Structure to design on (577 residues):
């Protein structure tokens, strides 16, 4: 069962998409929204599996919605014309539909959703992506791909693959959204994904130095080192 | 060209006549009147021959010769023309010599080829002048033609830009009508008709740049009725058009462009929507159109190009007696067009 939310500017467009989705019994539409504010409230409260999201919205755009969500569900963008806005995404991680929506394209999109949906919801927090818009570039990053998060004032720098975009959210706020068994607060400045830790070496002052896959080094403060040993039962 | 040609031709050959008369060798045995008549006959002959030269040059101009080649043609043609006139004159005189002793004396006094010496430089001068003037005329004509083309092209481009229907609007409308087919087939049919008349508008009535306000307003209403499918309750429309203003000419797309801007930059992006008013008033043949929407005037948001195009369009059709102004007033954005009066 896939729970979906439709965010469309026009009432007729919402009606139209819901009508088209009736062909797929595995998809249940759990709510509609017509502008940015309503969309954020609805998505936060309904926590759907997927959002069909119009790019052009009253009160902002699809990106305004994504930037303000703490947990981003899977997104299928819908647009009348400006698919070029999606070129901003670093990878082809997003799906989009051009309105009026071709039934075959919709079938493909739904098929992809069904395939990608994890069997157990427990894993979702590692797979439900974070949306980052750094200047012209957009990213949807799965937490499992993130190696390190670094505090840069009120921003956080997210290291994943070969990218390190800035997210306008303080490190503490991000920490609360991440799975605590995977993400470890190494110090005031860093959060580390434990899956990427390759080497642990003692460091000055009773701290530790972690070497991560891909070459990053992160220092663990003395206070957190004790907790680190605990977590990994060293 | 022809008038100018004869205005130069007649005084030119009269001047030749005077010079030839006063520069003639004195012939005591021939009466002055007869001498003058002879010079006049040569001048008329020269003038007739110059028409032949004109015919020749015109025929050759199409080939686009270089300067040197022209010079050769010009010298050969001038000398041949001079010899030709001289020969014909001499032959005619020899036939007339038997008629009177005066003519016989004239015939004896002026040997063959004696006039060619004066005629040849005259033809060279004539040819140079003719070619210079005709080249100048043709250049000016080409420049004017090019200018006309440029203006026509600019006007066509402007018209095309103004009549551009946004793809965003087009696809949203199609999507909305698609839904409407399920919900309200009758209304869907109506909206398709409106959409069709909107799409047809850029091509209607011979693509004239100016249309009666009435025609423009009909399309504006079609457009707004389609936009209402998208915006629903968020669009509140009001219009007040003076019936006397309806037949007055306005640039095609003029009101449509302002209304489109109001939707795109004013009501569309706002969650609560807003009010849109179109007022048209006339006084003494002058027309004022106000398009007002609730909202703020955003600076540099890309609406400038359309307005610039409309400004140019107004200027092309009405010069300084028309204009466009964009203002913010009491929480409203006001776009105002005036035609037929000074601001």
């Amino acid at each position: 069962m896939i729970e979906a939310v439709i965010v469309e500017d026009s009432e007729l467009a919402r009606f139209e998409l819901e009508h088209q989705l009736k062909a797929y019994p595995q998809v249940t539409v759990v709510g509609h929204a017509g502008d940015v504010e309503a969309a954020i409230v609805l998505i936060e409260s309904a926590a759907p599996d997927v959002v069909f999201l119009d790019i052009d919205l009253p009160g902002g755009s699809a990106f305004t919605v994504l930037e303000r969500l703490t947990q981003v569900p899977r997104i299928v963008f819908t647009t009348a014309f400006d698919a070029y806005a999606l070129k901003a995404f670093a990878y082809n991680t997003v799906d989009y539909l051009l309105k009026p929506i071709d039934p075959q394209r919709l079938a493909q999109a739904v098929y992809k959703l069904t395939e990608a949906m994890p069997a157990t919801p427990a894993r979702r927090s590692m797979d439900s992506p974070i949306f980052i818009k750094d200047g012209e570039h957009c990213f949807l990053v799965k937490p499992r791909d993130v190696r390190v998060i670094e505090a840069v004032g009120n921003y956080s720098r997210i290291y994943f693959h070969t990218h390190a975009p800035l997210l306008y959210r303080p490190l503490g706020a991000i920490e609360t959204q991440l799975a605590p068994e995977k993400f470890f607060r190494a110090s005031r400045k860093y959060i580390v994904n434990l899956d990427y830790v390759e080497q642990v070496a003692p460091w000055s002052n009773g701290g530790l130095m972690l070497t991560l896959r891909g070459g990053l080094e992160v220092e663990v403060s003395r206070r957190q080192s004790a907790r680190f040993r605990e977590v990994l039962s060293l | 060209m022809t008038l100018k040609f004869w205005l130069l031709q007649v005084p030119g050959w009269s001047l030749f006549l005077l010079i030839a008369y006063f520069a003639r060798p004195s012939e005591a045995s021939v009466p002055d009147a007869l001498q003058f008549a002879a010079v006049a006959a040569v001048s008329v002959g020269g003038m007739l021959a110059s028409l032949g030269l004109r015919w020749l040059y015109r025929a050759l101009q199409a080939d686009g010769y270089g300067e040197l080649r022209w010079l050769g043609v010009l010298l050969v043609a001038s000398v041949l023309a001079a010899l030709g006139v001289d020969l014909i004159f001499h032959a005619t005189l020899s036939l007339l010599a038997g008629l009177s002793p005066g003519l016989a004396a004239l015939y004896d006094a002026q040997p063959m080829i004696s006039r060619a010496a004066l005629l040849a430089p005259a033809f060279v001068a004539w040819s140079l002048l003719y070619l210079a003037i005709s080249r100048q005329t043709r250049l000016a004509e080409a420049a004017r033609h090019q200018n006309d083309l440029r203006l026509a092209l600019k006007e066509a481009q402007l018209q095309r830009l103004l009549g551009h229907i946004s793809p965003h609007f087009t696809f949203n409308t199609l999507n909305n009508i698609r839904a409407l087919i399920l919900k309200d087939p009758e209304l869907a049919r109506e909206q398709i008709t409106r959409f069709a008349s909107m799409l047809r508008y850029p091509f209607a009535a011979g693509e004239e740049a100016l249309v009666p306000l009435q025609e423009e307003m009909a399309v504006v209403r079609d457009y707004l009725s389609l936009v209402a499918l998208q915006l629903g309750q968020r669009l509140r429309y009001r219009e007040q058009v003076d019936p006397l203003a309806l037949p007055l000419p306005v640039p095609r797309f003029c009101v449509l462009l302002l209304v489109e801007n109001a939707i795109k930059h004013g009501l569309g992006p706002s969650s609560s929507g807003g009010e849109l008013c179109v007022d048209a008033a006339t006084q003494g043949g002058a027309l004022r159109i106000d398009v007002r929407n609730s909202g703020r005037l955003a600076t540099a948001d890309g609406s400038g190009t359309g307005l610039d195009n409309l400004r140019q369009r107004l200027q092309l059709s009405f010069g300084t007696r028309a204009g466009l102004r964009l203002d913010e007033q009491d929480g409203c954005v006001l776009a105002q067009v005036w035609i037929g009066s000074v601001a």
Notes: The CA atoms of residues 191 and 225 of chain B lie 8 Å apart. The radius of gyration of chain B is 38 Å.
